[in-house]
Amino acid sequence: MAELHDLSATEQAREVREGRLSPVDLTEHYLSRMDTLDGELGAFLTPTPELARKQAAEAESEAAAARREGRALPPLFGVPVPVKDLNMVAGVRCTFGSRAYADHVPDVDDHLVTRLRAGGTIMTGKTNTPEFGLPCYTENAVGPPARTPWDTSRSAGGSSGGAAAAVAAGLAPVAHASDGGGSIRIPASVCGLFGIKPSRGRVSGGPVLHDISGLSTSGPLARTVADAATLLDVLAGPMPGDPYGAPSLPPGETFAGYAGREPGRLRVVAVADPPVPGAELHPDCRAALDGSVALLRELGHEVDEVALPADEALMDSFTAVWAVMANAHPVAEQDEELLMPLTRHLRELGRQVSGVALQQALYAFRALGQMVADALLAEGAYDLVLSPTLARPPAPVGGLRNDADPAAEFAALAHFTPFTPLFNATGQPAVNVPLHWNAQGLPIGVMLAGRYGEDATLVSLSAQLEAARPWAHRRPPMW
């Protein structure tokens, strides 16, 4: 007999709307799974059972009233949606993955939390993240490492590793995540999920920790395309003070609607060569790319393969901006010793970046975005870019860290994830699609990126791929 966590998030929401499922029962089911399984996974840093139960009881009353009065409810009303611990929920501990903030309790909601509350979702906890979201693994000094449920000896990736582990193991139906250099797509790849990094400005980053670089954005992690698209509908939209704004969908349209719409025939350019000098593509990642090319062609799309030269310039610019952004969270001088070695290294490096150098690095991002738009995604050229998501399969827990030499660690991280930062720099939407599992049973994702503002095209194509090669039936051993 199917259990509640076997239902998709959209199925759960429908059952709540129609009165066949209680938000209280659904919330208790996930809180129980968190209690039972999270000790092995490290998905949550701060569970919030009291808040979740309060919200669930309120949702149950509101859902009953809406049925009596014939009122519509938001698309994920009554469904649990945990929040990554890089974002603030008023009255709930927010550590940013750092011992320096171990006791930090904000008194404001981030805008995305405001939208989640307005959407009637249930906040079951704050998910695990590395310190300040800086590396592409989820290991810190305030909690256990986040592990992929496909093989708990391996990392869940980062920086949204806790969110991905929670969804992949059935501790949450969907989850909020964020992405500054691949932090949605990387854990989606190693945990076998669908994840969307939206266009820059699609989801508000305010009101407190606006990312001045434009690299970071929040987005959804989910088992199905429809679930992710529905959560994006909840999260998306302008808020006061936003410095960027992605083009809105036409009136009456939703991203969830595009998950049920054929994408039409598309032109896709496939890129296999890592753009970071020295990075090598593992055969499993190449096999995932080749299989995706074949599937796209089977579905009637045109796919060309091109080789792009590796270029140090993007890595240099990204490093300069990333190091500056490592200083975004203030830390008292006497508390610097509480920070992880990589964090200390990047903060020191960031303090050496001049204003002129930062301006030049940001200009390089904008120039890169223009080049990609003109060369690959202009009218009459290609509609989408396809590449591996990562250069290697999921890494062992601790396998990406080098506390003794954080400079070498940061360089090695670039070799592990050479493809994802490009679209943070350009602001384009990009998704991880879980189309491949290797001989060891580990998920190996591929990435699709589209024109700026055309997130809906990615949703439609991903849904078509999902229909052709379904993946949600694949369940990790601890499911």
Tag the structure with descriptive keywords.
479 residues; 11 strands; 12% strand; globular
Summarize the structure.
By secondary structure, this protein is α/β, with parallel strands linked by helices. It has helices spanning 9-17, 23-41, 49-69, 111-118, 161-168, 185-191, 225-235, 255-258, 283-298, 312-325, 341-351, 355-375, 406-416, 421-426, 455-468, and strands at 44-47, 83-84, 125-127, 174-179, 194-197, 217-222, 267-271, 302-306, 384-388, 430-437, 443-450.
Report on the architecture of this protein.
There is one protein chain. The radius of gyration is 21 Å and the shape is globular. The model has no long low-confidence stretch (mean pLDDT 97). Strand 10 and strand 11 (443-450) form a beta hairpin. The protein is of the alpha/beta class. The protein has an eight-stranded mixed beta sheet, sandwiched between helices. It has a three-stranded mixed beta sheet with strand order 1-3-2. Helix 2 runs antiparallel to helix 3 (49-69), helix 5 (161-168) packs parallel to helix 6 (185-191) and helix 10 (312-325) packs across helix 12 (355-375). Helix content is 38%, strand content 12%. The protein has helices spanning 9-17, 23-41, 49-69, 111-118, 161-168, 185-191, 225-235, 255-258, 283-298, 312-325, 341-351, 355-375, 406-416, 421-426, 455-468; strands at 44-47, 83-84, 125-127, 174-179, 194-197, 217-222, 267-271, 302-306, 384-388, 430-437, 443-450. It is built from 15 helices and eleven strands.
